[in-house]
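User: Show me sequence and structure for the first protein, then do the same for the second.

Assistant: Starting with the first protein.
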Amino acid sequence: METVVVMVAGLVDHDVAVRVWRDRPGSVLVRHVAAETCVRRWVDGVATDIDLLHGCASCTVREDLRELLAALKGHTVVLHLDPLLEPDAVRRKLGVDVECVITVLDAATWLDDALGDASMVSDQRTVAQVVVAQAEAADVLVLQGDADERTLAVLDRLAPGAHRCTPETVVVRKSTRPRLMPLTPECGVSTAVFTADRPFHPARLNDALDSLLDGTVVRSRGRLWVADEPDVALHLESAGCGLHVGEGGPLGGRTTQIVAITLGEPDSITAAFTEALLTDDELSFVDSIRKLAI
């Protein structure tokens, strides 16, 4: 009999994990909270302090969860994640099948957090990177308080197919697949889509990235072809005013694709990245250099 895992995430205080646990007789409620010198773990309300491994709270939680899930094989485990943890990151590191990811958010403040540049106290991430990653991983979004239409339109694009409910009506439900992001503008929320079949100029690309950091973009993702990296694609990801660009594996097809959820003008984003592409003269020069190298 396989272990069933339900993850409950969220940066806000909530009792949703307890509600899910109570609604599933025989399930086990697990929660970890990091402290300065240890990690406190609760299993069905019984607390245990665990010494930090190498001074790393996340490493300690990960290793303890591996052992716990092995010991609880065949059970339903309701995993109340530490507020700072992102469900997809936990799922990848643990290598477990998850029946449902439930994310709890403050409907009144979530969008401001998702657009902002506030930093987390505990690590190098921004608050936006945490709350956006938690929301987009959700099969079920639990809204504490009333959300305005603009927030709901953003969530429709960030987590399409996710079921929305309140803490009192929470259910464990796998979202429908495939998740198709709406492309039609709604309540001032748009989806910018940029594609190109020529590489970026590295310096101009750096300038174009600023179009994603003006406080109107909730989330962007992309796979970039840059002229000085002819064999490697770069992976782009931003949330609010936090951005990361890193190696994304072999280039494969020589194309660029960027998708951004924005409350601003999508045309300004596509225009900025269009201006960052190599011109015809630059492209001819690069091609001639490559031929000489061969």
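Switching to the second protein now.
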Amino acid sequence: MAYAPVITMQPFRFHSIYQPRIWGGQHMRTMLGRELPDRETAYGEAWEISDRPEAMSTVREGEWEGIPLHRLWEERREELFGPGYERFTRFPLLCKILDARENLSVQVHPPERTAAARRGEVKNEVWYVLHADPDALIYGGMEETATLSDIRRAAETGQMEQLIRSTHLEKGEHLYIPAGLVHAIGAGHLIAEIQQNSDTTYRLYDWNRTDASGQGRELHMEQALDSIAEFRELCRQPGYLTEMPHFTTEEYRLDQGERFTQPDASRFAIFTILRGSVSWDGKTARQGEFILSPANADAVTAVEPDTVLLSTTV
């Protein structure tokens, strides 16, 4: 009996969608060597892989060039992504680069109970530090004795720093940010973020910041307080593996010339280049780039010594 051969797919990337933010900067250009739309705008986010109506990724290269991610998910789900994803109406991950020239707002993403009640979307996320200034801080978790009334008062009186915990992360470290944990990225960070496909954020405190017209950004006090589910401090992820109910990330260190494919060839993976570069089919991806490796994809090859690659699977 003859069996149909398995067709080997090529990895591919998407066009970056750059998002101006009041706290953003130009580090994606100066540190990652990217060509940004201009050199004056403060770009805080680059949405690298996004299946969202407000910011839809399109394929940058190869056989599927120019096609929106959602169309691939709808029409070629099992062929490109593998079996077992019927429960997802959209591609399940959202991948970004974050450039924090200033502090991001103190915020919280809703857990299951709040998201359902308020028609929001649950968001659990992982941060990987591509750069951190020597004095840069990550904020997350509240003091153990803090009550919701204390948190409200601190936000309303500009005293949030007295309650929220902080820590310094070095380049190469990573954190898991569960839904319900109050958190903020401090100034001086460049971060790769992998999260569930959600854009629900409740802003609790914004450092008394105002825009060019003197207006502060909208806060979501009641939604944020209702979403707080975790008071514990931030926890660095040990080792190279972060397993969560919604997705798993694993870090790999590759020697020059070493080939790499996802652990389960029958299902897709997202590769994030944390250091060095990889190549495939005449293409090269460098630090800070995201690659979609389809089911049954060909391998990528490390171009530089000590290349570090993050593989994310669902």
